[in-house]
Amino acid sequence: MRSITRKSLLYRSGVEYADFCINHVEGCAHGCRFPCYAMMMKKRTGVIKDYKDWIRPKIVSNALELLEREIPKYKNKIRYVHLCFSTDPFMYKYPEVADLTLKIIERLNKDNIRCTVLTKGIHPKKLTDIGKYGQNNEYGITLISLSKSFKRRLEPYSAPYGERIRALKHLHDKGLKTWVSIEPYPTPNLQKQNIWEVLNSVSFVDKIVFGKLNYNVKSNYGDNKEFYQKQADRVIDFCQRKGIEYHIKNGTEEKYNKKTEKIFRAALLPIYQE
Fold first, then answer.
1. Is residue 266's pLDDT more than 80?
2. Tell me, what's the pLDDT at 265?
3. CATH number of the domain at 2-264, please?
4. How far is 120 from 164, CA to CA, in rounded Å?
5. Is there a contact between 115 and 108 (Cβ–Cβ < 8 Å)?
6. Does the reported pTM lie above 0.90?
7. Taking 80 as the threshold, does the pLDDT of residue 82 lie above it?
8. Reported confidence tier of residue 222, pLDDT bands at 50, 70, 90
9. CA–CA distance from 274 to each of 12, 114, 184, 268, 271 (Å)?
10. Strand 207-212 to strand 177-185: parallel, antiparallel, or no bridges (unpaired)?
11. What is the pLDDT of residues 195-211, one digit of tens each?
């Protein structure tokens, strides 16, 4: 796997429900074709050349060394660290990435820094070792469909949906906190489906984040606003009935509920509990 070095790693994210973030890989082999916002920005700023360059990821070889310097600097400012917004921490079929991610989580937890994790890959069973990784991290998957043909078209090299769900359910069954990002949710002209089926497949999770599809000309669906309002209402109804915390991303529904941005800002619990 290709590698790069960086001058810094931890940064404060501008994403509405996030705090600090880490992206310890440049690029992502999943090759999502929505298109991927992170890829668009990296291309615009000249970091990558094109799609082919993006799906040949480069690992940040000095990530752990940077953490050792930056944790003391930011420790008192961090509520939690998110992995990741512009790459995937458990990139499918990339064990080098997973190994580094596990080391990063372990290192952050050592200083009682909680992690939120989001992947289109597979969560390793090793995460259930709460003596090593702690039990107040929150592990999530992106799940916007259950259709195999949709995945082949728009998330071609990511983990199969069923595998993602089963790995997440395993963590849940072991007592860990789990969540799902249903974003970017496709409009019917891209994929006709029933959102209830997606929701029911992950009814065991603690939290759900829902958001619309942007940056795709095909997302200019005629009844876009009405469609996303209806889907958001269904997500809220489902979560309220199941006792699941939720956040609807800004711009997805007509009236934004800013209060739910705090979905991951739980009380500062110790990472390791007796």
1. no
2. 85
3. 3.20.20.70
4. 7
5. yes
6. yes
7. yes
8. confident
9. 31, 16, 38, 16, 10
10. parallel
11. 999 999 999 999 999 99
64: enclosing H helix or E strand: helix 63-74
Band of residue 122 on the pLDDT scale cut at 50, 70, 90: very high
Per the CB < 8 A criterion, the answer to whether 74 and 19 are in contact is: no
* CA 263/CA 274 separation, integer angstroms: 25
Q: How far apart are CA 175 and CA 137, in angstroms?
A: 11
Angle, CA 210 vertex, CA 205 and CA 214 arms, to 5°:
145
Q: How is residue 261 written in tokens?
A: 């941005």
Instruction: Report which residue type is found at 150.
Output: F
> Which two tokens mark 36?
């991927």
Report d(CA 73, CA 60) in Å as an integer: 20
Across 96-116, b (16+ Cβ under 10 Å) vs e yields ebbebbbebbeebbeeebbbb
E strands, the chain, are 2-4, 11-12, 20-21, 25-26, 58-60, 80-83, 114-119, 138-142, 177-185, 207-212, 245-248
In the β-sheet with 114-119, what is the strand arrangement from edge to edge? 11-12, 20-21, 80-83, 114-119, 138-142, 177-185, 207-212, 245-248
Report how far apart, in Å, the C-alpha atoms of 12 and of each of 17, 21, 23, 255 are.
Answer: 12, 6, 12, 26
Give percent of the chain with pLDDT exceeding 70.
95
Q: Domain map of the chain by residue range?
A: 2-264
Structure tokens at 266: 């739980």
What is the Cα–Cα distance from 202 to 178, expressed in whole angstroms?
10
Tokens of 39: 């890829």
d(CA 152, CA 180): 20
Three-state secondary structure call for residue 168:
helix
User: Per-residue confidence at 219, pLDDT binned at 50, 70, 90?
Assistant: low
Q: How many CA atoms lie within 13 A of 238 on its CB side?
A: 25
